[in-house]
Structure formats: structure tokens, C-alpha cells
Design brief:
Elements: E1 7-11, E2 17-23, H1 33-44, E3 45-49, H2 50-59, H3 82-93, E4 102-106, E5 111-115, H4 118-122, H5 129-146, H6 153-161, E6 175-176, H7 197-203, H8 208-225, H9 234-246, H10 251-258, H11 264-277, E7 282-286, E8 292-295, H12 299-321, H13 327-342, H14 351-364, H15 390-399, H16 408-412, H17 414-419, H18 423-426, H19 428-438
Antiparallel strand pairs: 1-2, 3-5, 3-6, 4-5, 7-8
Helix pairs in contact: 1-19, 2-6, 3-5, 5-6, 7-8, 7-15, 8-9, 8-15, 9-12, 10-12, 11-12, 11-13, 12-13, 12-15, 13-14
Length: 443
């Protein structure tokens, strides 16, 4: 029997109706097979930059910027032999012949997408198994393919692993995962929140709805990991995932379409009107000035409507400018307008407003050091908004038309492009919705 009475209608990223009457639990990370597959895929997926390894060995530039080892260069035709290297790598990673190991050659041999066998992850504790086992296996594959002598093993290691273990992570390496090393996580449960919006935007091929969906899935799944989405707080996060992340009831799409020629303030007004017409809020009192304050019997649902409106506001504002830099202002002023219009709490009960204020400081004020593409839920600036801010940032990055020096492509490198080959990551709304339909009858 379902824990909650909430049911939603599913819509695509293009506003097309999919299915009605879906229990809210059917899109939960605990029950939805597609979300669980997305998380497994994130842990198993590793991007290998063969072109980068070839260049690093040819020039001796290994271990990060300005680190060049003269006299140790190796001129190996790595890209040309990508097929042989992939076969070696697959054989080294496989545990059994029929396991789920997979190595795909991409970009004419310049990159590999490696899916580490699930059993390797299950045999250990840390998710870093994906990166470490791939990097170690790749070293063996390169040495065996090109019959590298023992005096050059160190260069192979450095081209693959980077400066590790002298650095905490694989600084300057050419093996990458979406997940940062545990030492770079803010605390327990932050692993899925430590994925930059640049990666999310490129993985979803800059589709703003799917970028917001993937970011929301990662953020809200992390809430379950860190213990935030437990007990009375579970429904708040499920409703946020449904409406803001998955376009439940076509709410986000409708708000964007209605205000395509409008402003952030117009979206705020439309959000209040929709909440009022759907019975989510109701008038509380009318002052002598004519100002009407509102109340609600369902704060979780109001929060989900507000979060959906916030995302729509980011899409309208950043989409109009084709620039990502406006998103901190939307985080602040959409919420401020919503509170003034209704007298009710804004998204995430004020935490998103605070996140926007600090993000504005870091990206536009005294510091001025980072555009929105570098931010993630583990960042010192944006970690305070628990699941509802980052989807807006990811959507803004997806809508950007190349207005920043550090573009998403430059920040993400080959990771985003390689992992966009995975359908569930590229089109999460489609696959999570399909799984929710199959999971409609929640026990």
C-alpha cells in the first residue's frame, strides 16, 4: 500500500502527455528502477581520453600544468590502435565472460567509455573502484599493446593516473569519472552532489529540461543518502523531484510557455495563480491596502510548485539572454517576489534564497571567480540549498550560448561528451517516466 496519497501526471521534456495517476513513490530513488540504474551507471562509468594520453606521452607533459619531463617522451600511435587497447582493457576488467563489462570506442578512437563490471563495485566499499580498476587495467593494456620497456612504465602510469598518489585526485590524468574522490566530498552522502553543472549540461546535450531532471535526480537521491529525505521530510523531496525535476503535471513546461515573452516576476505571478487555481494555496487575509496573504494546508506541495516556478523563472530569464550568469539573481529575486506576493515560505524555506545570495557574491562580486558551470551541490556556495537550487543552475548552463571564457565544454572536457552516449543519463525524464509507469502499483 502506498505511503502517500499523492498522484502525478507524467509529461515529456517537450510537454507531451505520457501517463496519469502515477503514485509519488513510483519516482522515488528507493523504488524507481531507472533512477537506481542511473546511480549504478554513474558509479560504473569511466571516460578514458586516449588522445590525451597520446599527447601527454609524446610531449612528456604529465601530472598537471607546467609539469613536463624532458627526455622521457614516448611516441605511441594510441588513437590508431584504440580497438586493440579496448580489447586488452576489457579482458583485464572482466571477472567472468558473461558479466556486464563494456568498453565502447568513441570519437574515432580518441575516447573510450568504460563500464566497469558491477561485481567489482559490489566486492568493495568505495565507488572509486570504477576509476582505479580502469586506470590500472589501462596501464597494463598500453604496456602490452606497445611492448613498453620497464624504464618507461612510470610515464605510462603518469599519463594515465596523473600526479596521483602525490595529489589527492588524478591531477592531470586521463581517466575520469563523474564522481569526485571521497576526500573532496563535503561530508556523508555528498558524492552525487559533487558533479559540476558543466557535466550535467553536456551529458544531456544541453537540453535544459533534461539537464534540470538529471541534476534533480542526483540531488534528491543524495538527500536519501545523507538522511535528509527520511520520515516527515521524505515527501518534500519526492514532491520536489516530481514537479521541479520531472515536469509533473506539465507544470514547469506550462509556466515557461506562458511566460515565454515575460520576466522572472511574470513567472512568479503565474506560479501563484496556478497554485491558487489548483487549490494548493488559499487566501488567508486581506489588508486595508488590498494586499492578500495566503496560507496552505500542504507545505510540501506548495514548495514543489514554488520549486517548479523557480526553474521556469531560470529558464525564461537565462533563455532570453542565452546566458547562464543570471541564474543567481533568479534564485534570489524569484523567491523574494514569491514571499512578498503570498506571505508563504519560498523554495526550500529560504535556503535557496541564501544560496543565490552567496552564489552571486562568488560569481559576480568581490570574488568573481566562477561561472555557474563550475558549481555543484557540494560547492561551498551552493551546498546549502538541499536539492532545489542546482537543477536551476544546470538548466541555465544548458541554455548558455557560449558567453563564458570557461565554457561547459572546457570545464567538462571529454567526460560530458563521452557519458552523453548513455541513454538514461542523456534523457532521464523519458526513462524515469517509463520505469514509473511499470512501477505504478506501489506495494
Amino acid at each position: 500500500m502506498a505511503k502517500y496519497s499523492d498522484k502525478i501526471d507524467l509529461y515529456s521534456d517537450e510537454g507531451s502527455f505520457i501517463e496519469s495517476g502515477i503514485p509519488i513513490e513510483a519516482i522515488s530513488p528507493l523504488t524507481n528502477p531507472a533512477i537506481r540504474k542511473i546511480v549504478r551507471t554513474v558509479k560504473r562509468s569511466v571516460a578514458v581520453n586516449l588522445k590525451g594520453i597520446e599527447k601527454a606521452l609524446r610531449t612528456g607533459a604529465v601530472g598537471g600544468n607546467q609539469c613536463i619531463i624532458r627526455g622521457k617522451e614516448l611516441d605511441l600511435p594510441i588513437v590508431e590502435n584504440a580497438g586493440t587497447i579496448a580489447d586488452h582493457l576489457r579482458n583485464c576488467l572482466q571477472v567472468t565472460k558473461d558479466d556486464d563489462t563494456d568498453v565502447k570506442i568513441l570519437r574515432n578512437g580518441e575516447s573510450l567509455l568504460v563500464m566497469v563490471p558491477t561485481v567489482r563495485l559490489e566486492a568493495g566499499v568505495e565507488y572509486t573502484t570504477g576509476c582505479t580498476s580502469t586506470a590500472a587495467s589501462l596501464c597494463h593494456a598500453l604496456i602490452e599493446t606497445f611492448n613498453v620497456n620497464i624504464w618507461s612504465y612510470d610515464m605510462i602510469h603518469s599519463a594515465v593516473w596523473g600526479r596521483y598518489p602525490q595529489s589527492v585526485d588524478m591531477l592531470g590524468g586521463n581517466v575520469s569519472s563523474l564522481l569526485s574522490v571521497p576526500q573532496q566530498n563535503e561530508g556523508m552522502g555528498y558524492a552525487l552532489r559533487n558533479i559540476p553543472c558543466a557535466h550535467v549540461a553536456l551529458i544531456t546535450k544541453k537540453n535544459s529540461m533534461n539537464a534540470a531532471a538529471l541534476a534533480s535526480i542526483l540531488e534528491q537521491t543524495a538527500m536519501f543518502e545523507m538522511g535528509d529525505a527520511v520520515g516527515p521530510f521524505e515527501r518534500i523531496h519526492l514532491m520536489g523531484l516530481a514537479y521541479q525535476g520531472l515536469n509533473a503535471n506539465n507544470l514547469t513546461y506550462d509556466l515557461v510557455k506562458e511566460n515565454a515573452q515575460g520576466t522572472t516576476g511574470d513567472v512568479a505571478r503565474s506560479t501563484v495563480k496556478r497554485a491558487l487555481s489548483d487549490g494548493v494555496i488559499k487566501p488567508l487575509a486581506k489588508q486595508e491596502s488590498g494586499y492578500v496573504s495566503y496560507t496552505t494546508d500542504d507545505l510540501a506541495k506548495w514548495n514543489s510548485y514554488a520549486a517548479s516556478g523557480l526553474l521556469a523563472g531560470a529558464m525564461v530569464t537565462c533563455g532570453a539572454a542565452r546566458a547562464m550568469q543570471h541564474v543567481p539573481s533568479v534564485l534570489v529575486w524569484f523567491d523574494d517576489l514569491l514571499e512578498r506576493e503570498t506571505g508563504l515560505p519560498s523554495v526550500d524555506f529560504g535556503r535557496v534564497t541564501g544560496t543565490g545570495v552567496e552564489m552571486s557574491f562568488f560569481s559576480h562580486s568581490i570574488y568573481g571567480g566562477g561561472n555557474p558551470a563550475v558549481f555543484h551541490g557540494n560547492h561551498i556556495v551552493t551546498r546549502h540549498g538541499k536539492g532545489f537550487a542546482i537543477p536551476c543552475v544546470a538548466a541555465a548552463v544548458a541554455l548558455d550560448a557560449g558567453t563564458t571564457f570557461y565554457s561547459p565544454e572546457r570545464i567538462s572536457g571529454v567526460v560530458g561528451e563521452v557519458l552523453s552516449e548513455i541513454p538514461e543519463l542523456r534523457e532521464p525524464i523519458k526513462y524515469v517516466s517509463e520505469a514509473a509507469i511499470q512501477n505504478k502499483e506501489v506495494e
